[in-house]
Amino acid sequence: MDKKQKEFLYELLRTPSPSGSEFKIQKKWIGYTEKFADRVETDIGGNAIAILNPKAKFKVLLAGHCDEIGFIVTQIDGNGFISFGPVGGISHKVAPGLRVEILGEMGNIDGVIGVNAEHHGGLKEKFEYEDLFIDCGFKNRKEAQKYVNVGDFAVYRSEITELKNGLVSSKALDDKTGAFIVAEVIRRLKGQKLNVGVYAVSTTSEEIGLCGAYFAAAGIDPDLAIACDVTWATDYPTVNRSKYGDYRVDGGPLLAVGSPVSVKINNMLKKSAEKKKIPVQIEVVPRITGTDADRMRFTNTGVPIALVSLPIRYMHSPVETVSLDQIENVIEILTGFIKDLTGRENLKPLE
């Protein structure tokens, strides 16, 4: 990954995009991909779609969701303090004492999630969202309502931190890394001789129900679809590896195996990884993947799917951590996989 590509990834990470408010990040994604895609489209679900070789009959859909977990304003009290609830699977347990930005109509507003001082009893041992509040410094409700409305979204404000050994930490690596990866696959395939059409999609609202993926697959009607997402690394203290598996943040991309996943697609992905001498880890998904792949699978007459995941530490926190080398490895596997497709692949499992 060169400096320009890293800057694009970091720009995605810095752009707030809670589920339901992905407009700004999609415009940036489109601005990046339209330079090398044959065509860029949008759809009713708010997805951004970069296409190569659109006349090809055989179509490959690559999906990486651009939305992040966040908060939504539920109430403003008389003193200007703001109550809030979750958007997606965001834990209240890591929220106290952190900085946020509220995405107001008139612009973004900085705030902090207040914490009761230990001298005054501290937080309750068991607390919920209703025990928390955002302090933006407003004097009263009237002043607050000049900047913030009930229903406004908010996200963590966190800095991108480069750690040792090529690791990077930030909010929203789940799954802006996926949106970055599918865009980068399009960039690297530009000018290559392809036997298939490639549809890279920055999908919306994955965190609240895999919504964008349904619209994308229903509209594109692909012959195969691959979700590019993140999954849990377990290589840090406190994780029960005998229960959750042994997955290393630098151990290679993860291929999902199990009932929902196409064995034929997985075999081709494994061959691509072997050609490039990239190690892969295996993740078991007995019933569902919990990603965009689940919705894409059930569109139209059915779509064979696979899931390639980036191992991530501290998922759904402000300090999610991934390996930049593994981002590169996912891109390499996918570009090699697509270049090897003939467009005549039969993905029916019994044929």
Walk me through this protein's architecture.
The chain is an alpha+beta fold and 351 residues long. It folds into two domains: 3-68 and 171-340, Zn peptidases (Aminopeptidase, 3-Layer(aba) Sandwich); 70-156, Peptidase M42, domain 2 (Elongation Factor Tu (Ef-tu), domain 3, Beta Barrel). The protein contains nine helices and 17 strands. The chain has an eight-stranded mixed beta sheet, with helices on both faces. Strands 5-4-9-6-7-8 form a six-stranded antiparallel beta sheet, with no helix packed on it. Strand 4 (70-76) and strand 5 form a beta hairpin. Helix 1 packs antiparallel against helix 4, helix 4 (173-189) packs across helix 9 (324-340) and helix 7 packs across helix 9 (324-340).
Termini separation comes to 39 Å
Task: Please write the CATH class name of the largest domain.
Answer: Alpha Beta
CATH superfamily of the largest domain: Zn peptidases
Domain module tally: 2
Known CATH architecture of the largest domain: 3-Layer(aba) Sandwich
How would you classify the helix and strand content by structural class? alpha+beta
Shape: globular
Q: Average pLDDT value?
A: 96
Q: For the largest beta sheet, what order do the strands appear in spatially?
A: 1-2-12-3-13-16-14-15
* Share of helical residues: 25-40%
Number of strands: 17
H/E series? HHEEEEEEEEHEEEHEHEHEHEHEEH
Mind describing the biggest β-sheet?
A: 8 strands, mixed
Determine the strand fraction and express it as a percent band. 25-35%
Number of helical stretches of at least 4 residues: 9
* Unreliable parts: none
CATH fold name of the largest domain = Aminopeptidase
Radius of gyration, in angstroms, nearest whole number:
21 Å
